[in-house]
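## Example pair
The file below holds two records. Each record gives the amino-acid sequence first, followed by its structure token line.
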Amino acid sequence: MLAWRMSRQLLEPRGTATAREVARALCGVQVQVASSAELAVAVRQRRPRPGEVERALWTDRSLVKTWAMRGTLHLLPADIAGSYVATLSRLRPWEAKAWERYHGISPAEVDRVCEAIAAVLGSEPRTREELSTEIAEHMRSKKIAQKLGSGWSELLKPAAFQGLLCQGPPRDRNVTFVNPHAWISGWRLPDPDDAGADLVRWYLRAHGPATVQHFADWWARQRPSVVRPWFERLNDELVTVEIEGLRAFLSSRDLPAIRRRKPTDAVRLLPNFDQYVLASGRNDEAILPPKRKAKVSRQAGWISKVVILGGRIAGVWEFGNDDGAIEVELFEPVPAPALRREARHLGGFLGHDVAVRSRSARN
């Protein structure tokens, strides 16, 4: 199962996939750290292409950068990004009393902000300051202007979830925003339930076998009951399998391929926030032993760079201080030649030699 999952996520074997094809295969690439997203693409390419993600975003517009799963920034394929957004359009966390008390903004004010964004934002990129000024003028609200201008994103995420806003090309290190209806050719939001069924289908192709809880956690940290109807729409396509006592769902057409797949001893160095870890690895004991979870899923939602051995998380790694080396902390033995090969692959993308320093995991 782990070897098959690595193949579905383009980790073994590596191929010639483009940045958009990687984002499609993984169900998005998390991108609040731009360098990690670029590495997530590069580690899956036989010959990484520096600068490809930027070109796909701002020149080709084959990728979209927007808030999606769990309210975090993702790279999504432009032609199906609307489906991801549509699944989130019915989530309205700003209507909860706790949200309103914490942020000091009423649901009605949030809806007015979304209406203002739809009215003022087009294909011309706006910085946060420019957008907040225009919205404040449109709404005649200094409070909203202050909230938007402070770098606070919670007033922008509702617009992103309704398909009214995504990120545009940076300007002088400032983030900009555009309306995807004007920025992306053919942008549309399908029916949320149809989109939800599609998302389950795509997720299981990349990250299955998986439980409803796995999917709900990855999608939006929701209760399983919220997404179970999407699984039920696919009853004719899914089978239930048991892996080491865990009952999980899988596309029926993928079962023969898993049965034929042979285990792998491939080693990979994955960046922070990689989908291989985010989609199920933190909660899947077959991938990550519970006693090592704190090393991978750290405080404030930080996900470590990880060493993958045969589909399991076998360690964590970081860049060294100034010498171009990487420092690897291993949970189990990993062949040194394989680590050096991965470091060379990493160096080919970064443009400099990368040495490896390894140590056993500290308790």
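Second record, same layout:
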Amino acid sequence: MPEEENLVRRAQQHDADAWAEIYNLYVDRLYRYVLARVRNTMVAEDLTAQVFLKALSSITSFTWQGGPFASWLFRIAHNLIIDFHRKPSSKEQPLPEWELNISDSDPFKIAENNITMEIVFQAIQKLTPSQRQAIEYRFIADLPVEETARLMGKSPGAIKALQHSALESLRRFLSVRGKNE
């Protein structure tokens, strides 16, 4: 945390290297989180860029409130996603091409992975809103339990319970689907 605090203080003093480091630390996690919520790679790229632009424009007013800096960035992302979904044009988004780190360039394997990810995404949509949000923060954005708890305004124990029940529900949804195919 002291390293992160030092990095943010440098960024508040308009240190370009500090901004580059912040960007590199958080861009992938933020992008995955946004992509899972908007389901469109171009929109996710745009919104992720907007997160960093908003953070850059308001970094001087950022004050530590006991949590990690990432919590602030994810709150910005969350608000941008809400704004995006309020727009009428967001209702008809194409299915995403899930960007997995696939070393194989075989189009059949890529298509199979995209189908698998879409099935998992559809199962995630059947979770309660709190379970879905916990799964998105924990596994898609790769945030620790404590940070997820801060973002969701819950205790770490509550997050662990949500995560457990969500994973159990996903297991049930996916096993039923597998039996029906």
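Notes on the second record: The mean pLDDT is 84. The radius of gyration is 18 Å.
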